[in-house]
Amino acid sequence: MNPQATSPEMNKVVIGHLETLLADSYALMAQTHLAHWNVEGANFFGLHTAFQTQYEELFTAIDEIAERIRALGGYAPGGLAMLDTMSEIGGMERKLDANGYLTHLAEYHRVLVDAAIKGRDAAGEAGDAETEDLFIARLQVHEKTLWMLRSAAM
After folding, report:
1. At the N or C end, where does the chain have fewer CB atoms within 10 A?
2. What are the φ/ψ torsions at residue 153 (nearest 5 degrees)?
3. What is the 3-state secondary structure (H, E, C) of the chain?
4. How far is CA 37 from CA 9, 25, 71, 89, 147, in A?
5. Would you tell me the crossing angle of helices 129-152 and 98-126 to the nearest 10 degrees?
6. What are phi and psi of 20, to 5 degrees?
7. Would you tell me which CATH number, out of the four given (1.20.58.100, 1.10.357.20, 1.20.1260.10, 3.40.50.720), belongs to the domain 6-152?
8. CA-to-CA distance for 32 and 41, rounded, in angstroms?
9. Residue burial 31-41, b: 16+ Cβ < 10 Å; e: rest
């Protein structure tokens, strides 16, 4: 999409949704990494590996989201303090049981599902099919991860 193809106001709205998705994804990546480091119990090996797969996928996605913001003429937010103030993701205790990590991470994948739906709709309204596709792809990943986390919770 040519960023000039939509109104500057619509472009700002779409960029705002991308910034929210980026900040929330960054927070969830950090929490998933924390769960990867600290999970214990009978399912340690499986969860340790699953959490690593999830935080690595989020890291890649964050870069793609930031690059889309730049492609639309915006500037990607960064730094822990800035992203923390922009994120809807709450904190997580360092030590939870395995089910606690699963439940917590599932709750915040739900936040990302909601953010992706809002972003998808805004991009569609703006006629920005490329960004709409990005939001749809993120929606698919978070819905699948949400299902997996809920299925693993005891």
Report:
1. C
2. -65, 145
3. CCHHHCCHHHHHHHHHHHHHHHHHHHHHHHHHHHHHHHCCCCCHHHHHHHHHHHHHHHHHHHHHHHHHHHHCCCCCCCCHHHHHHHCCCCCCCCCCCHHHHHHHHHHHHHHHHHHHHHHHHHHHHHCCHHHHHHHHHHHHHHHHHHHHHHHHCC
4. 42, 18, 35, 19, 22
5. 160
6. -65, -45
7. 1.20.1260.10
8. 17
9. bbbbbbebbee
Reported as a single tens digit per residue, the pLDDT across 5-58 is: 567 788 899 999 999 999 999 999 999 999 999 999 999 999 999 999 999 999
Name the residue ranges covered by the structural domains of the chain: 6-152
Longest Cα separation, the chain? 54
User: Among all chains, which residue has been given the structure tokens 């900040």?
Assistant: 23
Report the predicted TM-score, pTM, of the whole model to 2 decimal places.
0.92
Q: Which residue has tokens 């990005």?
A: 134
Number of residues written out for the chain: 154
Q: Determine the distance from the C-alpha atom of residue 154 to the mean position of all C-alpha atoms in its chain, rounded to a whole number.
A: 24
Q: Which residue has the tokens 């917590």?
A: 104
